[in-house]
Protein: Putative signaling protein
Organism: Paraburkholderia fynbosensis
Amino acid sequence: MFASSYNSLLVLFSLLVAILASYTALDMAGRISSAQGRAAHWWLAGGAVAMGTGIWSMHFIGMLAFSLPIPLGYDPAITVLSLLIAIAASAFALWLVGRNELPSSRLFCGALLMGAGIVAMHYTGMAAMRMAPGIRYIPSVFILSVVIAIVASGAALWIAFNLRRVSPLVRPLRAAAAVVMGFAIVGMHYTGMAAAQFPLASVCGAARDGVNAGWLALVIIVVTLAVLAIALIISVLDLRLESRTSMLAISLAEANQELTYLALHDNLTKLPNRLLLEDRLDRAIQSANRENNRFALMFMDLDGFKTVNDAYGHHTGDLLLVEVAERIGANVRPQDTIARMGGDEFVLLAGVAEPADAATLADKVLTAIQEPFQVAGRVLRISTSIGIAMYPGDGGHRGDLLANADAAMYHAKSLGRNVYCFFEASMNAHVHEQLQLVQDLRSALVRHELILQYQPKFTAPNGPVIGVEALVRWSHPTRGLIAPDLFIPMAEKTGLIVPIGEWVLDEACRQISEWRTAGHWDWTMAVNLSALQFSHASLIQTVRETLERYALEPHCLTLEVTESTAMRDADASLRILQQLHDMGVRISIDDFGTGYSSLLYLKRLPASELKIDRGFVRDLTSDTEDAAIVSAIVALGQTLNLKIVAEGVETAGQRDFLTRLGCDSLQGFLLGRPMSADDLMEALSQDNVLNDAT
């Protein structure tokens, strides 16, 4: 027999290729198991080519490392066939480990088939030398190589299946497993080579027309390393892309979840909002119809919340609303829905079948809300009014139930508040009347139904007239003249107060411009700003454009802001008022004495006058407390260099008392009632504006 030898360097390269091919196979198994649809088929095909090429290359480099005392060569067709066998065996292996499960029976069959494929690849590659006489194999060593191939295949399949999932330690584990698998593959190959015997005088038939081994080893090593490297690089890049895509998908899902939550919940109290309540109300109606059940819908409105908000500001009001929401939630069942409709309105959807049970629950909520609240270091007391509508008796649809519960709530307020009322059909008349009034108010500006009346303001005690205050009135086509206290709160609640306020400002500036042109150049025009209008983003621009429109000097316009509005958010109010002051507009603090002003902020406000509320003037001559309060306000205003205006002057005694205290100007029915512009000018011309003031 010929004595054989090996090129140590090529043997080492064959081992490295085997380890790299094993690592590539493990990585491909992971990519295939995580891929979906058509991508999985592409990964299987590409992985089979890369893995098969790697295993075959290890085998062929090992054969190139082998040498005999005779020239050797390899038949191209048979060599390619051995490569195809390696790719087919690799495809089967990757397909097998890509399954969801790998039971022992499937692992055993897979090991047999894959081992047979590797053995076939190896011995087909040996046959490519076309030796004459043929290669003889030592049976025991041949069988050992087959056993090694099967055992190595089984171990490789088990390792690949268990290391296919991504985890923090998967890469070092794959590297270690690749080393073990590489040695197993090399061991099988060289065991098979050891089984081969070449008789003396043997001739290699592929030495003359086959591929020369001299340059083939280098080409195969370079090509194989390139194929494996490309496969690994693509796998790593795809894994990173998949990881980033997965992270993006997770972030997107979280963002969508958060957006959905925000769209369905109140941002302040975290309670369900109107949208989510309506959905749950629809579901409750469907469930009640299906199971022939009943439920209650309770509409709640806090009593006294506006006073707290005006006195202590929005921040304290918001904290109070959160406390109210928590207290209501603690007194209802988990399956009930408590939602915030906006402002200080809450709705409770309760699965109670009997009115008596609804009354018990409402009474429980009333008692809970009535307890004092500890908010921002203050003890606050409020109550609530509750309207109850029962399904299906008080409405068969969501809108009917909400409207009827709302109507019952308003009726509860009219009874004195801090009570609950069940809906009755007669309550609907009031609700429909209010809704119709809102619709009419929306059209009032377009139909020119709003008018301004002007109440003169006099230098104390008897004049002359130094200006007027613009007061809006609604001349309804069928209801006649509607008092402001009936439609102004409605306008504030619906937001219509902003366009109404802009119209009042425009009309008042137009009128004062006309009067100044007529010779009353020293008159000023006072216009009230609602809280909503004062905080509106366009206020400054609206005032500036209106003054420019009528070519008015800013100092002829006085904007009256209530004390509670100015103190609601003192820092924000200070910025707004400062901008108006810098423009040249005069600022008057209206209803002074009714709120809870901080003198620290009051002295910083760029106001030019304080206006004493009519509530203190009414009983001025008979109530010593009111007299003391008015005296203090006048003294405070004089200390701050502010003009003092008193409104609501109806008697000569009030006029004289206020004049003695030091009020600069007076306003009231004693001196002049609100009247149209034409009536005011006529009264002035007849010199009877002062009524009996003289």
About this structure: Residues 213-264 form the longest helix (52 residues).
